[in-house]
Design a protein that fits this description.
Blueprint (H helix, E strand, L loop, with lengths): L1 H38 L6 H47 L1
Helix pairs in contact: 1-2
């Protein structure tokens, strides 16, 4: 059981770390786009318009991933809540 627990926790950490990388990357892309705009004529509102496109994709990815993550977390919460309740009953014996 210990090995299974470690794999589950490692997977969870990897999921959250990957999502953090995605979020940092979108922030860096948008920031870099505005830095580029200060040095290069990209045209009227180009950086702003691309920020909207990127932000839409960013939000879509987060929403899709978080829906799946939330489902998994709720399943784990329910599982461990049952285990905790059983543990409490065992201690009372």
């Amino acid at each position: 059981m210990e090995v299974e627990k470690d794999i589950t926790n490692e997977s969870k950490v990897e999921i959250y770390e990957t999502l953090a990388v995605i979020n940092r990357s979108f922030e860096q892309i948008i920031s870099a786009l505005y830095k580029l705009e200060k040095r290069v004529d990209l045209g009227d509102d180009y950086a702003y318009n691309q920020e909207i496109v990127a932000s839409d994709l960013w939000a879509r990815i987060n929403t899709h991933a978080l829906a799946s993550i939330t489902k998994r977390e709720l399943e784990e919460k329910n599982h461990f809540s049952k285990m905790k309740a059983n543990l409490g009953r065992q201690r009372k014996k």
